[in-house]
């Protein structure tokens, strides 16, 4: 075998499955508007994103043994462990197929673009919602999971269940769940997202958040397509900021913004 010091790099994947797919309804009239929006009665340029209860699945796919001298992986081990499933709320928008076509034409990694765009979107939450990014997560789809069913590409912001840090926005989700006769929560029961939940607020302002994320990606001064912590890298990425593309992220964000306009 390989001699010398080595460390393990765990490969993880997240799966996202909405329990329903209804569009976000209009916010109650008594709720305050975003500070970034105009105080006039002019119509919003963006439609709300979808906001649904969702099942979030965490899956350990395996690990790589990495040489600490060269930092190169020399062995990959697959694992088949039980999935960890949690019910939460998620605001999400589909990435149009035209974004993938544009990336293919320009020889860019579309998955890396969605991954980077999700990071930038999560990082922009404090500016427009007052939420702490540590209370929320995004889908870091850097690792190809052949065991997962094919899902449509989305930019997803979900509330972290049982969070302990941040401002607590992800804990006060306001979600209700059906219970069975024994009093236990039914994980697949009908769940409703409260109009007062943090996720609902994010869904209503998703267009402005994407707009801020696009500006963040475009104006960063770093010269790497993999980006930096000022544009598309975040410290909380469960896939170690692997598979990121600033150029592809710009394409993804532009098309996602266009899908919310009108």
Automatic annotation (TrEMBL):
Top-rank taxon, per record: Eukaryota
Molecular function (GO) terms for this protein are: 3'-5' DNA helicase activity
BP GO annotations: interstrand cross-link repair; nucleotide-excision repair
Task: Pinpoint the MrfA-like Zn-binding domain residues.
Answer: 117-232
Q: Which GO terms describe its cellular component?
A: nucleus
Composition bias of kind Low complexity appears in: 31-44
Record protein name field: MrfA-like Zn-binding domain-containing protein
Region entry Disordered, spans: 16-48
